[in-house]
Amino acid sequence: MAAPSSEAERQRDKERTRADILEVATREFADKGYTGARVDEIAARTSTTKRMIYYYFGGKEQLYLAVLERSYSAIRTLEAQLDVEHLEPEEALRELAALTFDHHEANPDFIRLVSIENIHHAEHLKQSAILAGLADPALGGLTRILQRGREAGRFREDADPLDIHMLISSFCVFRLANRHTFQAIFSRDMLDPARREHYRAMLSDLVIGYLTAR
Q1: How far apart are CA 108 and CA 105, in angstroms?
Q2: pTM recorded for the entire structure
Q3: Distance from the CA of 38 to the CA of which of 52, 76, 88, 199 falls in 20 to 30 A?
Q4: Cα separations (Å) of 198 from 96, 172, 194?
Q5: What is the C-alpha to C-alpha distance for residues 68 and 200, in angstroms, rounded to an integer?
Q6: Are the beta carbons of 103 and 79 closer than 8 angstroms?
Q7: Cα–Cα distance between 94 and 204 in angstroms, integer?
Q8: CA nearest to 96, candidates 109, 106, 85
């Protein structure tokens, strides 16, 4: 009777080790980029070995791709879980925009990873086995919200879900990715807590303003 319990414990240890490696690798790649990151450093910070990391992931490129997939999956999971069907279209859209705003602010490593992968022309992300499923959670709920708004005569007929996704993402990403250069030039910190709610409301107002413009 002890064997199943031991096997279950070994599986839990394996999952914990893999999760620890991904957590540390996320910071390493976000801080140093794909080229600058070192698997030896990740191994040292997780009390594992380079050989063990290769055993779990196959190599540096596969580890980096796993980090990307984990980061994208986190925001897609949140979007898929957002329950706004009972809300009016405008309020539902505000909730969706707020979710993206909050997630990006709480996960600056995600923004850095996205920027790094764009430097590499998404060559790693294009190899992802989950790539095909990354768009549906982002656009599915948004498409339904826009459809309800159009049917109620509140949103413009030419509203495109991907355009709205881009509008929301661009605001949230810019605020994080360009924080330091923006502050150096204009002496304003876009992450100043005193202005947080202002920017959060501003994002929703921009999206609703576009959708209701005639």
Answers
A1: 6
A2: 0.91
A3: 76
A4: 17, 13, 8
A5: 26
A6: no
A7: 5
A8: 85
